[in-house]
Amino acid sequence: MTSGATNDDAPALDPRAFRNALGMFATGVTVVTTRDGGGRRYGMTVNSFSAVSLDPPLVLWSLSRTNPNAAVFTTADHFAVNVLAVGQIELSKRFARPSVDKFAGVTVNDGLGGVPLLEATAASFECRRHAILDGGDHHLLLGRVLRFEHRGVPTLVFCQGRYHRSEYLGPPLDPALETAIVWGWHG
């Protein structure tokens, strides 16, 4: 087990150990998509997706400042977050690797602002860029959700460097407890 102090004069953390600790937190797997001014499609696998607000409806994802497509995503007016379903591991891998055309052979529909929407995903969120925040070595892209869909299928999960599937572990929570867990609200 590795830990670090939180004050400003703390020694630097071991980056690999820090990543391993972060990897203990299970996340969904998404493909974020957009188009540039010339209409070219861009997409990348992202697991840093998070809900931010219900009113207004906001979501957030982070993008490395050194990503070759950072300029495209940070200047695009619209983007979509496609939440992958269990059977979409190959899509996750495809959009995680460099490629001339990641969309070759992939069925997509055009969403708001022309953003590519992947078919048969667990959910999709069509967003207009709301803000870009400084996140250290990452940009934090905040999107206002304009339209969304969800299909009630098991989602693809990533934890400890491996793919997993979501699985129900009991009955649904009562609405008050669900709100407290998802939105950090405690009355």
Over all CA atoms, what is the radius of gyration?
17 Å
- What number is the mean pLDDT? 90
Q: Outline, from the CA principal axes? A: globular
Whole-Å distance between the termini?
34 Å
Outline the biggest β-sheet.
7 strands, antiparallel
Helical region count?
4
Topology as H/E string?
A: HEEEEEHEHEEEEEEH
Count of DSSP E strands? 12
> Order of strands side by side in the largest beta sheet?
3-2-6-9-10-5-4
Helix content: 10-25%
What kind of oligomer do you see? single chain
Name the beta content range.
35-45%
Label the structural class: alpha+beta
Low-confidence stretches: 1-5
Fold and architecture overview:
It is a single chain. The chain is α+β, with helices and mostly antiparallel strands and 187 residues long. The chain is built from 4 helices and 12 strands. The strands form 3 sheets. The chain has a 7-stranded antiparallel β-sheet. A hairpin with a 2-residue loop joins strand 9 (123-135) and strand 10. The protein is globular. It starts with 14 loop residues before the first helix and ends with a helix.
Summarize the structure.
This protein is α+β, with helices and mostly antiparallel strands. It has helices at 15-22, 70-75, 89-96, 175-183, and strands spanning 27-28, 30-35, 41-46, 50-54, 57-64, 78-83, 108-110, 116-118, 123-135, 138-150, 156-159, 162-165.
